[in-house]
Amino acid sequence: MISIIQTYYKMLLMAMGNTLLLTLLSLIMAMVIGLIFALCNVGHSRFFRMIGTVYVDAIRGVPLIVLAFFIYFGIPQGIKMLGYEFRLTPLQAGIVALAMNCGAYMAEIFRAGIESIDHGQMEAARSLGMSYARAMYRVVLPQAFRVMIPSIINQFIITLKDTSILSVIGFPELTNTGRTITGNTFRSLETWTIVGFMYLVVIILLSKSAKVLERRLKHGRK
Amino acid sequence: MAENKPIIHVEHISKQFGVHTVLRDISLDVMPGEVVVVIGPSGSGKSTFLRCLNQLEKVNSGRIRVNGFEISDPNTDINQARRHIGMVFQHFNLFQNMTVLRNITVTPVDLKIMGKEEADELALRLLNRVGLGDRGNAYPDQLSGGQKQRVAIARALAMAPMVMLFDEPTSALDPEMVNEVLEVMKELSNSGITMVVVTHEMGFAREVADRVIFMDDGIILEQGTAEEVLDHPKSSRTRDFLGKVL
Ligand SMILES: Nc1ncnc2c1ncn2[C@@H]1O[C@H](COP(=O)(O)OP(=O)(O)OP(=O)(O)O)[C@@H](O)[C@H]1O
Ligand SMILES: [Mg+2]
Q: Which amino acid residue places its CA nearest to atom 24 of ligand 1?
């Protein structure tokens, strides 16, 4: 075990960094996607509600790995058939796949958060002359966001774990790196123990700091 | 000239929720400065009627004009119209994510009606007027119900409304807090602002109402001075209702 750590610690740390990078970038995109589709879903327009529902249902009905293959292999091939050259790096494809996947779950988290805010808040804002968008942005979303923080962090952790699925398209994140190392050393038990432990530490750190943050937000103001 | 033109003009409005008719062909004119108190049994459509006046509910037919804005016309800029129609809710609906002061200033500042400093000054003046000059930095959940409702009134007043709508402003309050809110409303009624108040506070009605309206099952069954409607009701429905609340 020590020898694996000694030989591969740089690679492992890089891989952990890649995993976090992938998680963070997809999460940021997922929040934007989630907000857009959540706003579709809570709005009054039937058309937008339909778009929101279709997106959420479609994405949640497709396994992440299939989505990743589709984006990484399928889409470039489709575009090539139209006569254009198009390639995605594994990182790009991975971020898009994860963001789309996570975005659908974020949309549900945002929707539930917005719907948990008393409708009277929106009505009061509108009665003063604020537009729907302004009332949303000034009054409803800030309150909804507070409510959503635990779920968002939970989703963060799920997405972090889901990055391991993207080892299949060859991005050198932590799981993929684990495969490389076992390929070189044939020492599966030790390698996967180390990799598992690394995930565990990061995730525990994340959920602990989430708890602290949550407590602070609950008691303190802003 | 403006004196003899109604500030609220309601013409034959009807409102359905699904198959359920809640307002049936209601017409009403309210003059500037008039204080109208609306009473009636639960479910008679009082809230719905009030909410139609600023289009929180849309009427199915008929016409509403308030402050010269055609509320029921889909081409009207409803956000503009609402600026001059204040509303006070049963459950206060203060913005939970803002201080008391910010509750009052956020709309006028956001809508560029005034600058931040001017808005702060105004908010402080209004808070003093409702007896809460020292609570500007508190958050809504640190206030009592009566205090919340007074802040809600101050928040509405910051938009310099011509008309104020109150939907059972004291119904959610503990009994000992009802008066502090009614006092503020009485003071307001002397300021010349037009008020439409849904309430079960008959004492308030007697003291400040220029007109009392009794609604029943989606129509205005009876209206007149407080004395006429409360002391000498013509219809037996009104008598029944008053017998229950008094
Ligand atoms: N959004 C809605 N959807 C469906 N029905 C509604 C809605 N709002 C009100 N109603 C119905 O319309 C009728 C009138 O309601 P409204 O709230 O106007 O009565 P109210 O006179 O204010 O009663 P209360 O004294 O209980 O407040 C009731 O039967 C109510 O159930
Ligand atoms: Mg009501």
A: B42
Residue type, B76: T
Beta bridge pairs of residue B86: B164
Q: B30 has which bridge partners?
A: B8
Domains identified in chain A, total number = 1
- Domain with A123 in it: what CATH number? 1.10.3720.10
How is residue A216 written in tokens?
């602070």
pLDDT in tens, A30-56: 999 999 999 999 988 999 999 999 999
pLDDT at B3 over 90: no
Structural domain boundaries enclosing A152: 2-218
Candidates B48, B92, B110, partner chain A, best to mutate (most A CBs within 10 A):
B110
Cβ neighbours for B157, distance < 8 A, ≥ 6 positions apart: B86, B126, B129, B164, B188
Question: Does the pLDDT value for residue A83 go beyond 50?
Answer: yes
Whether the CB of B42 sits within 6 Å of ligand 1: yes
Supply the residue whose CA is at minimum distance from atom 4 of ligand 1. B17
Residues A5-20 have pLDDT tens digits of: 888 889 999 999 999 9
Written as one string, the DSSP assignment of chain A is -HHHHHHHHHHHHHHHHHHHHHHHHHHHHHHHHHHHHHHHHHSS-HHHHHHHHHHHHHHHTS-HHHHHHIIIIIHHHHHHHTT------HHHHHHHHHHHHHHHHHHHHHHHHHHHS-HHHHHHHHHTT--HHHHIIIIIHHHHHHHHHHHHHHHHHHHHHHGGGGGGGT--SHHHHHHHHHHHH--HHHHHHHHHHHHHHHHHHHHHHHHHHHHHHHHS--
**Distance (Å, whole) CA A75 – CA B183:** 69
Q: Is the dihedral of CA B95, B96, B100, B102 positive or negative?
A: negative
Name the burial class of residue A130, with classes exposed (0-12), middle (13-18) and buried (19+) by CB atoms within 10 angstroms of its CB: buried
Q: Are A147 and A113 in contact (CB under 8 A)?
A: yes
Report chain B residues whose CB lies below 8 A from the CB of A116: none
